[in-house]
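User: Structure tokens for this complex, please. No commentary.
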Amino acid sequence: MNKALKKSIEASKGKDGKKATIIIHSGDFDKIMSAFIVGNGYLSMGVSVTLFFTFWGLTALKKVGFQRAPLSRMNILGIGRTMIRKRMRKYNVASLDELADSFKKLGGTVIACTMTMELMGIRNEDLREDLVDEYGTVGKYCFESKDADITLFI
Amino acid sequence: MNKALKKSIEASKGKDGKKATIIIHSGDFDKIMSAFIVGNGYLSMGVSVTLFFTFWGLTALKKVGFQRAPLSRMNILGIGRTMIRKRMRKYNVASLDELADSFKKLGGTVIACTMTMELMGIRNEDLREDLVDEYGTVGKYCFESKDADITLFI
Amino acid sequence: MNKALKKSIEASKGKDGKKATIIIHSGDFDKIMSAFIVGNGYLSMGVSVTLFFTFWGLTALKKVGFQRAPLSRMNILGIGRTMIRKRMRKYNVASLDELADSFKKLGGTVIACTMTMELMGIRNEDLREDLVDEYGTVGKYCFESKDADITLFI
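Assistant:
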């Protein structure tokens, strides 16, 4: 690997050099919440974070989809989406919008999977463009995660 | 990072310094089995393991829920929960209870997500307290996993 | 760890010494696609990749199951399995068969979980033997992933 490339990878890491990359394949409301909560946790500790949204995860990034994502287990154990949102407000748990906003403010990176966009007929303007930093292929994800210290698939 | 902190992190690692952290978000019986099977595998190799139970994963840690967790694909391919349990006995595959017991005996750590507890109205006494080592936030998970060598999200 | 063992681990790594291991627990068509796409991405960058097929993931490796795996979200957002396949052809996205073939040609390794085979009554000849390199226990997976740089659970 040449020096310039190595340097640019180092520069993309957090304060103490740690880096996390998370693939978000699932479009479930609770899993996307988990992704942003964990992402924000790492960012607050100086770990750099890149989220790669693909398949159903990407459809949840659609303007119309962000608040409409289903739970991975709907209405089981007596707790549905409305219930979860109500309790989130009651216990001051940040909403998905707030979590995503924090993620961006803390310096997190969001990549939208271009293959999924083609496959599902999603255009740039269909997505929450305020959240997306880059549109990239799986090659982009692999390049980013190759030197990551923490890798998750959600 | 100060020396004392660094030392305590090193101390929390396994014999050859390797460490695994696993987030268990899913509450599916087969996925929780996978988590404990993989966890026990690492522990037997001297890798330290921390399981962080959150969302539906945490509800499966409830006294009433541990044996009632559904399969991620119920009744597909002609194999349901009863069938899997029957075959598990037949082929001497450890039950979820046995797997969890082994995990504790091998020195594994279980953290229960406090945010999920608030969100879903779960109290300490609702959980399998014999399994839980700590009650912690996502910050606790991030701190633990920051220096992990193996990270999984189940 | 003795030198010979260390050497054999090093030898099993990719050109620049990076290694990825992926557990495929899910049998969903789109998740298996993701696994192979990501796997092929890493292989093309010189990262060695081992896929460990277990539970529903393994059933998808069955001769009869490979093309019949369901979507993790069927018929949601107006896009079903047929639709995805049609769009895959239209946009030149490789089929699951093509992805798996590339994976093997690029030097990727496929391990079939023997515990799952016993549990679900699957024999060697039921599986896509052209794809499987080894039949192994979770111990095999743990050994492989202990020194991996990238670990995912799908």
